[in-house]
């Protein structure tokens, strides 16, 4: 009587892939890496300052919340991709074009959200939430400028890649 054991291909692939996981600690020392961390920290401030108010009563602040949370989550996702160097393991994806589209769309939509946020802040609207909304507006413009910087760096990277 013979007993044969086999391992699944999933566990074999998992152990093989986890042993080759890279970590780029130098990325956070680059200007795009620093801008991403700033986008994450200040983007968190934007949406938490609004989330602590009765923003759901005002549709404009709902839009700002959507943009802030959406790009906050995606920026964390891209930071993980860059820190773990996942982009080197998936060469089928045009990462320079993806980065340019991501940062460009984040810049445009954050700029619109920051303008909507700033134009919606009035003492008459709700004086109780005025300070939180005003602070979120300021930080939204700072995050917008960070995405503008990363859009520039993404464009330079994309441009040098397409010229090769």
UniProtKB/TrEMBL annotation:
Domain MARVEL intervals: 27-159
GO molecular function: structural constituent of myelin sheath
Main location: membrane
The organism's place on the tree of life at top rank: Eukaryota
Any Gene Ontology biological process: myelination
Compartmental location: Membrane
Keywords for this protein: Membrane, Transmembrane, Transmembrane helix
GO CC annotation: membrane
Annotated TM spans: 31-50, 56-81, 93-113, 133-155
InterPro entries registered for this protein in UniProt: MAL, Marvel, MARVEL-CKLF_proteins
Signal sequence residues: none
Topology with respect to the bilayer: Multi-pass membrane protein
Name recorded for this polypeptide: CKLF8 protein
Taxonomic classification: Eukaryota, Metazoa, Chordata, Craniata, Vertebrata
């Amino acid at each position: 009587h013979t007993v044969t054991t086999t391992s699944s291909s999933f566990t074999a692939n998992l152990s093989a892939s986890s042993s080759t996981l890279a970590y780029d600690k130098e990325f956070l020392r680059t200007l795009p890496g620093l801008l991403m961390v700033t986008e994450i920290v200040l983007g968190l401030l934007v949406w938490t300052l609004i989330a602590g108010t009765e923003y759901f009563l005002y549709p404009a602040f709902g839009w700002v919340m959507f943009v802030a949370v959406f790009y906050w989550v995606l920026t964390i996702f891209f930071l993980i991709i860059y820190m773990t160097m996942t982009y080197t393991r998936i060469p089928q994806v045009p990462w320079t074009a993806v980065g340019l589209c991501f940062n460009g769309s984040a810049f445009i939509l954050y700029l619109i959200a920051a303008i909507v946020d700033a134009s919606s802040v009035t003492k008459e609207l709700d004086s109780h939430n005025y300070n939180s909304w005003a602070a979120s507006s300021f930080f939204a413009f700072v995050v917008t400028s960070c995405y503008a910087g990363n859009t520039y760096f993404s464009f330079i990277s994309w441009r040098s890649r397409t010229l090769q």
